Amino acid sequence: MPPAQRSSSTQAATTTPATTRVVLDAADITRALTRISHEILERNKGSADLVILGIPTRGVALAHRVAAVIGQVEDSHVPSGSLDITMYRDDLRLRPARTLEPTEIPARGVDGAVVVLVDDVLFSGRTVRAALDALGDVGRPKAVQLAVLVDRGHRQLPIRADFVGKNLPTSLLERVQVSLAEYDGDDAVLISSADGAG
Amino acid sequence: MQRHLLSTADLTRDDAVQILDTAEELRSLADRPIKKLPTLRGRTVVNLFFEDSTRTRISFEAAAKRLSADVINFSAKGSSVSKGESLKDTALTLEAMGADAVVIRHGSSGAPHRLATSGWVRSSVVNAGDGTHEHPTQALLDAFTLRRHLGELDGRRVTIVGDVLHSRVARSNALLLSTLGAEVTLVAPPTLLPVGVSSWPVQTSYDLDASLDKCDAVMMLRVQSERMNDAFFPSAREYSRRYGLDDRRFARLPEHAIVMHPGPMNRGMEISADVADHARSVIVEQVTNGVAVRMAVLYLLLSREPA
Amino acid sequence: MTAYLLRGAAPLGGPTRDLLLHDGRIADPADAPTNAVTVDAAGLVALPGLVDLHTHLREPGREDSETVLTGSQAAAMGGFTAVHAMANTDPVADTAGVVEQVHNLGRVAGYVDVRPVGAVTVGLAGQRLAELGAMADSAARVRVFSDDGTCVSDAVLMRRALEYVKAFDGVIAQHAQEPRLTEGAQMNEGAMSGVLGMRGWPAVAEEAVIARDCLLAGHVGSRLHVCHVSTAGSVELIRWAKTKGWAVTAEVTPHHLMLTDELASTYDPLYKVNPPLRTAEDVDALRAGLADGTIDCVATDHAPHPTEDKECEWAAAAMGMLGLETAVSVVQHAMVDTGLLDWAAVADRMSVRPAAIGSLGDHGGTLEPGSAANVVLVDPSSLRTIDPRESVSLSRNTPYAGLELPGRVVATFLRGRATVLDGKLQ
Fold it and tell me: One fold for both C4-45+371-425 and C49-357?
């Protein structure tokens, strides 16, 4: 079954090319994830106790990629998985019910681990807030860090990323779309203006 | 999905799949240290039970509580309802208490429908069994259990055996499993099949033995021995001999076939004790799955903009 | 007494002419007194005052749902000049005392002639005959006897009743419902009842009793009237009985001419009625039966119930629906606008024949000079949306609420006196 589409749909990119531009291409994304992986290792002085958890949908693929890079560098296995936050959202009354995404916690669990949450775009911070609540119900990590591919600003909560692929100042009218090979065929980060995003 | 869950006939295939997929994710919650989600915090779910059914009520109560909803249990016995208060007044009381969802079990077919369409309440209404009409969440949990064991239900053969005439479980299952692509066969003595069953999306048969060889699951319905007093069948023994799932019949089922029963069972009547306790009997698992399915239903009905 | 000159009416829907109602009789318009009130009847159909063989007025006993007065008013608004008040009151109309009381209440109310129906058995219990002769001899002059609401299911008792009423040219109006086949029944037994999970009410439960009763009536040579025929099979049986020359008559309700059991899928008890709404095939057969005269007449089975008896779950609800004020509209919709009956035939089925069955001398007459001035004026071109709040009945349980129906009663005259004028109760 295809994953449910979130804000990072590729639709607008193909239908309204005039108002859409590429911010990161495939090579940029690979470089960003590699850098983030190294920063994680540096910050945590190695990969011991690391658990990389992606926030569905696209955060999950990013988490697996980051875990793979770290694993290569360290020549070890870094557990990765997914953490669905649907049931922890604070806007359930405002939008139609969402189908749940899988939560897959690696077998070691999260107790005592350093959990790195991974998402594609950091925006209001509400998703991360929900993820922290969801994580708390799964176990008690030693520390929680946040990695995002793009930080587009406009935070509504006191939340900040530990690792950022690209800071991307945006207008609230603009839309940031992340395409990933795992879901969308190729890697790209696109920005489009709202009127063109339809 | 609609605002209420009154009949499985109201569920499209997409609706049903969404409920089952959601329940699949929620079921994993049972394995976690903290079995509670904050999703329905501040919402009120009322269990309005005009008929005793501890099993169903507890299942809905657990489902609501795991979603952090406030639960009010309203049992008709010993309450103002047994003193002649009307369904309408009860409904207005619940409305005044701010119920977001009313889970109703009622002895009269259509009572949940009435509650939902009368304009007495604004809440979502969930049918937890009405008269001899429907029991949609039971069918959903049955479909969920079937899917866990058999995979997707397209083309799967499910045989439902027993008192179809008086069974809300059979009605809901016949509609839902057909919607999900399964081939349903209802097996019963002619007296216990409803008039007009030929218009249902199912096969019917009077012969259980003929229906066993190819079925992927067999669902036994509870048969009340009192029915023989109304001449639906001559005796409990004859019923059991012709329509009971005994060890001999069980041996004729395909290797992968599972045995289901909505409970409570009459061991020795419609199902033998050995079959009921067999490894391929999923009767206890049905109960576990009931909580996840009811969580999914409550979540999907309530996590939407109030009407 | 005021004389009324109805200008330009179309008697029985035929050529227009003036009608004079004077001194309780229809008279020659040329003799109109100078102070006669002129009613503009252009475009209106004039019919003899309608006669209902089957009305529940609920008094005595359930004055919260209807009284003889309010039921009479509803009847007048529906174009009726005579109604038969069913016996299932509390106390039951099974003695001369009760039928005389109802008869008197009707006279005092003065809107229609109220003809009490006497119970066939004491207390409608189906055990022993009520004093049919005493009721026939009473001031109420009862001629129609019925246990309506329950069936005289005992074959011997039914035979005796049929025989006994021959002495005073009475008729037994049977509510045909085999009791064992309909225990706990909620709606028509068929595809819908199976889907809705409700106890079904098989057609055979009605037809078996009708077949038996026709045979009994033929055997003892008495008059049988079949109440509220609701199935295609019943129509066939009655058609067969009539070919035998037996004195069997039958009625159909307006709702069985229009509504089907599909409505039960709403679970709204407004549609719960005895006999139940049947299928579209049954509706077609009933219409055909009424059109060819197999079914003699339309009778409303007007059955008022207080709101609380309908504002509940289906199984707990009372059976029955209002009918008096909407009967003409439903008949126009189902029979006239479909070309099955013309207005002359409507007069036959809603006035002439029911008056004959009930032995009502003053009703069901012609519109020629000399006849009693029981007249109704109907505007067939009018369309109205049924609003239960506008009903003059004490109850609101109409199944037609919100429906747009043709036909409106403009005026009703009972022996020359206007009970309804300009669509308003007088």
Answer: no
Of B111, B131, B196, the CB nearest to C191: B196
For chain B positions 236-295, those within 8 Å of chain A (CB to CB) are: none
Domain limits at A159? 3-194
- Any idea which fold C4-45+371-425 has? Urease, subunit C; domain 1 (2.30.40)
Domain boundaries, chain C: 4-45+371-425, 49-357
- Reported as a single tens digit per residue, the pLDDT across C331-355 is 999 999 999 999 999 999 999 999 9
Domain count for chain A? 1
pLDDT at position B94, please? Answer: 86
Torsion of CA C201, C204, C205, C211, to 10 degrees: 160
Q: Which CATH superfamily is domain C49-357 in?
A: Metal-dependent hydrolases (3.20.20.140)
- How close A163 comes to chain B (CA, Å)? 29
Chains adjacent to A (≥3 CB pairs closer than 8 angstroms)? B
Residues of C in contact with B139 (CB under 8 A): none
Q: Return the residue matching tokens 């658990």.
A: A51
Q: What is the pLDDT of residues C142-198, one digit of tens each?
A: 999 999 999 999 999 999 999 999 999 999 999 999 999 999 999 999 999 999 999
Q: Among the residues of chain B, which ranges form H helices?
A: 13-27, 54-66, 87-96, 111-117, 136-150, 168-179, 236-243, 247-252, 273-276, 283-302
C301 is catalytic: yes
What is the interface pTM, i.e. ipTM, of the complex? 0.92
The domain that contains A188 carries what CATH number?
A: 3.40.50.2020
Per-residue pLDDT of chain A (198 residues; tens, 9 = 90+): 334 444 444 444 444 445 889 999 999 999 999 999 999 999 999 999 999 999 999 999 999 999 999 999 999 999 999 999 999 988 777 777 677 888 999 999 999 999 999 999 999 999 999 999 999 999 999 999 999 999 999 999 999 999 999 999 999 999 999 999 999 999 999 999 865 443
Strand pairing category for A188-193 and A174-179? antiparallel
Length reported for chain C: 426
- CB-CB neighbors (< 8 A) of A94 in chain B: 305
Q: Is C194 on the interface with B (CB under 8 A)?
A: yes
Output Rg (C-alpha) for chain B, integer angstroms: 19
- What CA–CA distances, in Å, run from C336 to C220, C328, C385? 37, 10, 18
CB distance from C312 to chain B under 8 Å? yes
Q: Which of residues 12-41 of B touch A (CB under 8 A)?
A: 18, 21-22, 25-26, 28, 32-34, 36-39
CB pairs under 8 A between B and C: 78
Contact C308, C318 (CB under 8 A): no
